[in-house]
Write a structure and sequence with these properties.
The chain is an alpha+beta fold. 21% of the residues lie in helices and 21% in strands. The chain folds into two domains: 3-36 and 210-275, no CATH class; 53-182, YbaK/aminoacyl-tRNA synthetase-associated domain (YbaK protein).
Amino acid sequence: MPSVATGRTNSGDCRYRRRRHRLLPGIRLRRQYRVGRSPAPAGERPAPSANLQKIHTPKVKTIAELVDFLKVDIRQTVKAVVVEGDEDEAVLMLLRGDHELNEVKAEKIAGIKSPLTFASPAAIKDAFGANPGSLGPVGFKGRIIADRTVAKMADMVVGANEDDHHLTGVNFGRDCPEPEVLDIRNVLEGDASPDGKGTLAIQRGIEVGHVFYLGTKYSAAMNATFRMKTASPNRLKWAATALACRVFWVPLSNRTMTTKALSGRMHWHRLPWSSARWAMTARPR
């Protein structure tokens, strides 16, 4: 089962939006979905306290290797992610070393190609003059987008845009232009809640519903209909399709998966009769 950030705070509040979907007359499905906002870091950016310095970092390509080589705090490092803009130009996205890019947030940014496309090694080499693993904002002439956490950092450790070299003591405004500041990262357990009343927790969850609007595509091909005393034949076919594809599917699939998940068994097993919504009898026409 997937892990989700609940957004529940210590005070018991939940940051959810609610959306109602009408299925059939008299039937409603209410869906809740998380507001995937990462918290804005508090306080102002510290003043620079270190000079810009280039360091030879042979064969250092990842954040983990950089932290081990320089013996620095990972929270002082910045990782570079290069994606394509609407006109295929390279766009540099900056995240703190221990954070990960949220691709859904990144794809929604104006001017970013959709679906999100990561730049090729050839395009990166052409735009930065270096290969992945040594990239950074200093000297880059293109668009730079920094996560809100990065925007509050000072004396950063970044790639030097020269293979096997990194820069320490990097500061926005002094060593490179101020970037666009946006929320582009995944939330982490322990992050402050958006309402400021607690911290976020990552918990396992059960998916409670899929709604497919299939129309008559499959029911018409299979001639799948049913009869009721109070409905006309034309109405029946439409109602059967709607019930089979939009309502009946939900309790069957979800009750089955929920029963398996709660019982701890992922293999086939006999389900209790109480998990069935309707009793049905099928016979040939």
